[in-house]
Every structure is written in C-alpha cells, then in structure tokens.
Amino acid sequence: MAWSLDYLYAGLVALLVGLDRTAVLQLLICRPIVAAPLTGWVLGDFQLGLQAGTLLELLWLGRLPVGAAIPPDDTQIAVGGTTLALMMGASAGADGLPMLLLCLLVALPLGKCGQIFDHLARQGNGLLLIRAEQELARRRPAAATRWHLLGLGFFALASLGTYLGIILPGSLLLPWLAPYLLAKVGDAAPWLALAFPLVGIAVFLGALRNRRILFLFLMAFLLVYFLREGF
Amino acid sequence: MLPLGVRLRILLRLPLLQASWNYERMQSLGVLYILYPALRFIYRDEDLVLACRRHLEYFNTHPFMAGPILGTTLALEEERSLHAEGSLDVSEFKGMIMAPFAAMGDAFFWGGLRPLFAALALLLAAAGFWWAPLAFLLFFNLPHGLALIAGLRGGYRQGLGMIGRVQRYRLPDLAVRCKEGTALLLGALSAVLVADTLRSAEVASAWGPCALLPVLLLGGLARLGVSNLILILLMSAALLVFFG
C-alpha cells in the first residue's frame, strides 16, 4: 500500500511540474534539475533526484519551446526516471547510480509519448476556442473566458498520461531487464554518468553553430582541467 | 485609469496566458481571459462583445513578453474607448509587435538565460551544493518576474513608448553574451566532470582533453540532424559494450 501511495505522490509532482511546462507560470520547476530533486525529496531521496536532474538537464537544453514546436518531455522523463529508480530499486534491492542510469535509459525512449499527449492537449484546446466563439455569438463574454481555464485540464491530463506512459511500461520492463543489464550498467556507470552531460553539451554547442562560442568552451575546458589536474 | 483591483486581477491572470494554447490561434483565448476584467470595466453590452471578439484573433508571443504587450494593449483600449485621435488600432498593434517580441523573448529567456543558469546550477551541483536547484529557480525568476510585472505596468503607463524602452535593453545582444557565458560554464563543468570520472576510474589524467573529441563529434552529428535521444542511446550502448 505504501508503495502505491508513493506512485501517487510522484504523480502529483508530475502533474504540478507538467503544468509549469506550458500552461501555468513557467517558473521552470519543470526543468529536470528541479523536477527530479523535487520527486526525489517527495519520495525520500533528494540526492538521487538531484543526480537524475544533473544527468538529464543538459540533454534537451538547446531545444526551445517556440511556436508550435513541442520539445521532448524531459520533465516527465525526470520525474518518471527518478520514481522508477527509487521504487524499482527498493523492490529489487538495487539502488544507487547503476539503477538510476538503467531507469533513465528505459525512461528516455518511453518519454517520446509525451510529445503525442502534448499534441493531443493542444488539439483539445482548439475545441475550447470554438466553444468560446459560440459563447460570444450568444453575447455571453464572461462564459467565453471561462473555457480558457479548461485548457489546464487538458495539459494536466497530458502530463499524467506521459507520467503513466513512462511508469507503467517501465515497471514491466525493468524487472525483466535488470538481471541482464544492471551489472553491465554498474561496470560502465562512471562513463555513462559522464556521457549524459557530454552529449547534452555537444548538442547544445552543435546547435549554436558559432565558432566563437565553441572556442570559449574549449578554452574554458582546457583552463579548468589543467588548473585542477596540473600541467 | 483602471482601478487597482482590475489591474491586480490582470496581473494575477497573466501567468495563465498559455493555459488553452492551441494550434488554431495559439494564445488568443488566453489574451481574452487576461484582459477581460479591464474590457468589462471599459466597455458595456455590444461594445464589450466586439472588444472580446477583437482579442480572440490570432496571437502568439513569448509568454514573458506578454506583460509589456498586454499593458500597452490596455492603454490603447482605454484610448479607443475615449475616441482619442491618432491612436494606433489595438489589433494592428498586437499583430505588429507580437512576432518581434516573441523572437526577443525566445532568444533572451529560452536561448540565453535558461542555459546560463542551468549550467551555473549544474556547476554548483557538481561542487556538492544541494541548493543548486533553488539557485537556478531564483536566478531565472528574477528577470522573469520583472518582465511580467514591470512590463505590464510599464506598458500600461507608457503606452506605445514601451516599445522603445524594451528596445533599449538590447535583449538580442544580451542573449549573445549569455550564450558566451554558458559556453564558459559548460567548458568548466565538462572539465570538472571529466577529471572526476578519470580519477574514479583510475585512468591517467593526461587522457582528459581527449574527451573533447567525442564532444566535437557528437556536436557534428547533432548538426547533421541526429536526434539527442539517438545520440545518448547509441553512446550508452557503445559504453555498455566496451566497459560492461
């Protein structure tokens, strides 16, 4: 019973941070660096959540939520990946970085469903616009504005749908994958933990297509590296 | 002048601009929702319905730049209701200003500040500071809150003069500076992560700069259109085969 309540609490976090992504405020509690530690804190392991957030934050940092473009849902990947790592890790008796990395590798492709749910929410909101126009045609402007708030419901459903789209298949896949992959992931864990931010940084720099910025990155890397490690 | 209560209601509604974002007219229903308390104060009966229809037209801008745009829109609506001479049409103003402000907001907030403060937070987290996520939220939301609150207030008080004021901030130039700062922070972060990984794996630190090669290679693949998801999954598979 306790574990199902934990899934529910994580679902509430998924809902809250999911709404921040587009529909409300946009304080950026939806970013993995915030959403994952928040999930970890709610489920009792802030540090693991912070680790998940630092691994995921850079992956899609360069993807801007501009116009009709829907970036990959790194918010629900962060919440779902952290939840899976804590819940499945506890039940399998495996925790720490290897389990987290395995859960994130499972959550990453599953998170693609987030773009579909987000697309559906935005299509649903199109119906609200039609309703609002109908209210205006009936000379009821106050009623027209109220349809706007129903959009929150569509975005909330999209967030929950993505969360469940990661958690449900993830819970089925992980007990099956863990016996084969967990030891391998454990051996490669330090390198995998390095690969996540490096891929994000590479994509970010690649997307900028700016030689001056690339030069600054290289200089900063070499300077800090040799200052730390000695020449 | 709109009463303080009406202006406060508009301010509280402003963060809900995108609650009903849709493909057809994007933020239009959100604009109507935000402006409605003021429109109801300014207009009555048929004029109110016409004003609501006017704001249900296509609208899309950066959500943080909506403050100055909607503030100015309110000033123009007030002028219009008084039949002031020479005032710009409200729909014309919104149509003219939303795209340039969207471009400025996207470049500055999403492309400049967000990566800068994310890189800073990651560097803090790598240094062991547990409050890194809180620092990220604080740093980012100071200019965010300022843009919304001061933007709405300034737009309403200054009217069209607000456009020149926003231009004076040179947000696109600031965005470039932010990106340069981000590159420096990411360089430092990469160096710290690589050094720590090599130490934990007991590999000679002389190999450290070699980490730049995969970064450049992966960046090149990303520029060719390979998705981040494919890149991280391929990279993980390669590492699992090699080290696992």
Main attributes of the structure:
heterodimer; A: about 230 residues; mainly alpha; about 80% helix; B: about 240 residues; 2 domains; elongated
Quick structural gist:
The complex is a heterodimer of chains A (231) and B (244). Chain A contains eight helices and no strands.
Distance between the termini of chain B: 69 Å
Shape, per Cα inertia axes of chain B: elongated
Which percent band covers the strand fraction of chain B? under 5%
What general form of chain A does the structure show? globular
Secondary structure: elements and pairs:
The complex is a heterodimer of chains A (231) and B (244).
Chain A: H1 2-21, H2 32-43, H3 46-56, H4 74-92, H5 97-110, H6 113-137, H7 141-208, H8 211-229
Helix pairs in contact in A: 1-2, 1-4, 1-7, 2-3, 2-4, 3-4, 4-5, 4-7, 5-7, 6-7
Chain B: H1 4-13, H2 28-42, H3 45-54, H4 66-81, H5 90-126, H6 132-158, H7 161-168, H8 171-200, H9 212-223, H10 228-243
